[in-house]
Each structure stands twice: as C-alpha cells, then as structure tokens.
Design brief:
Layout: H1 2-24, E1 63-64, E2 72-74, E3 81-87, E4 97-103, H2 112-121, E5 123-124, E6 132-138, E7 141-153, E8 167-179, E9 182-191, H3 192-208, E10 210-211
Antiparallel strand pairs: 1-10, 2-3, 3-4, 4-9, 5-7, 6-7, 7-8, 8-9
Length: about 210
C-alpha cells in the first residue's frame, strides 16, 4: 500500500516538471523581428563612386613669329630645324648668309651657357671681350642674345653636309628664346658685312616672337 502511494507521488512530480519545462519554452521570434539590445545592426555598404578620370595633358604651346622682309625662307636642311632663311649677301661679299631656327623639344637642347660656349668655340681669333651677350624680353618671353662681329668661323662636324673649312671675316648673331614648350635657338652666320646688314631684320624677327598663334 505504501509502495503504491510513493509511486503515485513520483508520477505526479514527473508530470509537473514536464509541464513546467513546456511552459518556460519561448516561441522563436519570426524573421524580421527587432534585434536584441546591445547587438550591432547590419549596415549595407555604400556604393563606391569610380575615381574621376585624369585630365589629359595639354600639348606644348609653340611659338610663332613674323618673317621679316629681306630674309628669304627656304626648306630646312634637317628635321631639327623648325625654319631656315637665306640671308642675301651684302655688296662686296661673295656668298649669302644663313639663319636657322632649332627646336629639340621640352627640356632639350642644353643650357644657355653650354650653347653660347659652343657657338663661341666655332670662331677663332676672337677675344672674350669681343663676344657680346645680352638679355631682353619680347611679348613676355625671355631672350638671350650673342653677337660676334668678326672672326674665322668653322662649324666643323656641326655643319650640315660636312664642314667646308674655316671661313674668314665671318660674323654671328644668335638668340635663345625661352618658351613654354622649351628653348628655341636662332642662329645667323655669314660674311661680316652680310650679317651686319641683316642685324635689323634679325631683331625685328625676335621682337615678333610670341607663344601660340
């Protein structure tokens, strides 16, 4: 009798525990329910804008000038020459002079002093004091001029088509023009009287040089 009573009590306790467990079980939250306090919300990444394309490099601005009267433009003898002019011989001279314009590209062609030294070395019998250098400006462009009034000229290997040997009683008028696209080199050589007669036309050309059209 006592054993039956004990088993009955155990069955009641067991059923009571199962009911409590079922009552404490939480129903799972449906999808989309709010996150628990303290949790980190999921944030969708913002679209990344593509970088702006780099600006294209502008072509260098070349120089222009007005051909002065008295100088005859002729086809250049090489690709390095932007232009070539024949300087008509003066009375008493046996040959014409020559004016060449050289351009080698931005940052090319060497320094001002290196070019002046090279031109001066092409003349013999000229004292350092006889080499006239000056700085000037025209239309916002800085210019450096070199003048040798008289000497024996020998371009050597620099002469197009080979050197014809030293030439006595020759002169030189040169200018280096600093432009946005790089340095331009203007070199006039010829018999002394011919170069002296064309000096005014040479500086007239320099005065007309400007950047762009």
């Amino acid at each position: 009798m006592a054993g039956r009573f004990v088993r009955a009590i155990c069955i009641v306790c067991l059923l009571s525990g199962v009911g409590s467990g079922l009552g404490c079980r939480k129903t799972p939250e449906p999808p989309g329910a709010e996150s628990k306090p303290g949790s980190v919300p999921t944030v969708s990444p913002r679209p990344v804008e593509p970088p702006a394309p780099a600006a294209s490099a502008l072509p260098p601005v070349e120089i222009t000038w007005v051909d002065p009267p008295g100088l005859r433009r002729v086809p250049p003898k090489s690709a390095m020459r932007k232009a070539s002019f024949e300087v008509p011989r003066a009375k008493g001279d046996t040959e014409d002079g020559e004016l060449s314009v050289f351009y080698f590209g931005p940052g090319q062609g060497g320094s001002i002093d290196a070019n002046v030294d090279r031109w001066v070395k092409q003349f013999s019998g000229v004292s350092p004091g006889a080499v006239k250098r000056a700085d000037r400006e025209a239309n916002g462009l800085r210019q450096h001029t070199v003048e040798i009034e008289h000497g024996t000229y020998d371009a050597g290997s620099m002469a197009m088509g080979g050197s014809s040997g030293p030439k006595k009683d020759y002169a030189l008028e040169c200018a280096i023009v600093e432009a946005p696209s790089g340095a331009y080199f203007f070199k006039m050589t010829g018999p002394a009287h011919t170069v002296a007669a064309a000096r005014s036309a040479f500086f007239q050309l320099l005065d007309s040089i400007r950047a762009g059209a």
